[in-house]
Design goal:
The protein is α/β, with parallel strands linked by helices. The chain is built from 12 helices and 18 strands. The two termini are about 15 Å apart.
């Protein structure tokens, strides 16, 4: 990869050139020079774009595709192209496939599918066999095969002893355990946040308490066992407070929030649009504000698009019967910019990498270039033409966004929109 990038504003606090506009000369995938008005004696490809910004490559800690088993929703190949064109140089792939990714052979399969991609795929192995919550999967074998963490996607581990053993066992090889924050015996069959809106709409409620009980339980277990815990997609103000308190105790815990939970409240469900049916559900404005503040003060470590392709047959049904989930890769950055500054956006899109075992390369001379190119200020309305996923279940369709992605430079490859 030989390129000259012209007049790009570098957004990277770990770079010697942070917050300055520079040219970058890339030779064989490595940054050979950074400066003003760099020459191009070897006639390399030049990239010169309006309001061009560059940062370290973005990471999404929770993406679902479908393959193997649900290729009608999304394939790994098209999913990774979508991720690249959405600005992500690395993604963690959820284990909710058919079969569930719960053996070293399953991990090897998805890695083989991504071997030549510009996007680095990091497999998440299931925490329990078939994600049923009953007995641990082959954690160490999957770790050896390349799994970066263990997570039963959207499937709470009901038995606290299973979670206790998981934390203890995984700590023997520095394994990262993920736990979906929902107490199913409280949430039961609720389909939206339990609040005034659910009463008005006549829909069964999933209370904030269901999440907060599970978060509290898992933090108690972490304090007892040690180990490493990641809590994906928290959605309530109390969850933020519980995790903030755990961090003051120096517990080894991180958490993420889905971008759509920062942008919408349960008021959005007025017309029963099933694209707004997500898990955890959209909560109240007070919860949204607490989540945003949690990102700003570092309590919440990272964001995720929680990208979940669902085919139309499972969305174009009554709200009670529709499947949970929305695609989010394509809209992720533009939606995030509507609630956060450029600086904070880049911070929460990049700092999760180290938690999942990825090396982070600052934009400095002599380092390999793993970067995202973007314009943080362009305003537009997200529509079907912006969707590259096979499935079209987009919560942000028709929503005003701010910030567009130009592409990525990663794994010695270039992807530009």
């Amino acid at each position: 990869m030989n390129i000259l990038i012209k007049s790009a504003k570098i957004i990277d606090p770990k770079s010697d050139f942070h917050n300055t506009t520079q040219d970058l000369l890339i030779e064989k995938g490595v940054i050979s020079s950074i400066g003003s008005n760099l020459k191009n004696p070897n006639n390399f490809k030049e990239i010169k774009l309006k309001n061009l910004h560059i940062s370290q490559g973005w990471f999404d800690s929770g993406v679902s595709f479908g393959e193997p088993g649900y290729e009608e929703r999304e394939t790994i190949e098209n999913g990774l192209i979508t991720a690249a064109r959405s600005g992500f140089t690395s993604i963690a792939l959820n284990a909710n496939t058919n079969p569930i990714i719960d053996t070293n052979a399953d991990v090897a399969f998805v890695l083989s599918k991504a071997s030549n991609s510009p996007v680095t795929l990091l497999p998440l192995g299931a925490l329990t066999r078939s994600s049923k919550g009953e007995e641990l999967a082959e954690l160490f074998d999957m770790k050896t095969a390349g799994a970066v963490a263990f997570y039963d996607y959207k499937a709470p581990v009901t038995n606290p002893n299973v979670m206790k053993i998981a934390l203890q066992y995984a700590s023997n090889f520095n394994g990262l355990v993920c736990s979906f924050p929902q107490e199913s015996r409280i949430s039961r069959n609720g389909v939206m946040n339990e609040h005034i809106s659910s009463t008005r709409l006549g829909l069964k409620g999933n209370p904030a308490l269901a999440e907060e009980l599970q978060v509290a339980r898992d933090l108690f277990l972490l304090e007892y066992t040690g180990g490493k815990l990641h809590i994906p997609t928290i959605s309530t103000a109390k969850s933020v407070a519980l995790i903030k308190d755990a961090k003051t105790k120096k517990l080894d815990v991180t958490c993420s929030v889905a971008i759509h939970n920062l942008c919408f409240t349960d008021e959005a469900l007025t017309d029963f649009n099933t694209n707004y049916k997500v898990l955890p559900p959209l909560r109240t404005q007070a919860d949204v504000q607490a989540l945003i503040e949690g990102l700003k003060d570092g309590t919440i470590d990272m964001v995720t698009t929680d990208h979940t392709p669902i085919d139309v047959e499972e969305k174009k049904v009554e709200f009670d019967h529709a499947n949970y989930g929305t695609i989010g890769l394509e809209s992720g950055f533009g939606a995030l910019r509507t609630v956060l500054t450029t600086k904070t956006c880049i911070e929460v899109l990049t700092k999760g990498k180290t938690r999942f075992g990825l090396e982070s390369w600052p934009i400095n001379i002599g380092n390999p270039l793993n970067a995202t190119l973007f314009d943080p200020d362009e305003n537009y309305t997200f529509s079907l033409k912006d969707i590259r996923s096979k499935s079209k279940n987009a919560i942000f369709e028709g929503y005003p966004l701010k910030g567009k992605v130009y592409g990525i430079l990663s794994n010695r490859k270039i992807v530009l929109n």
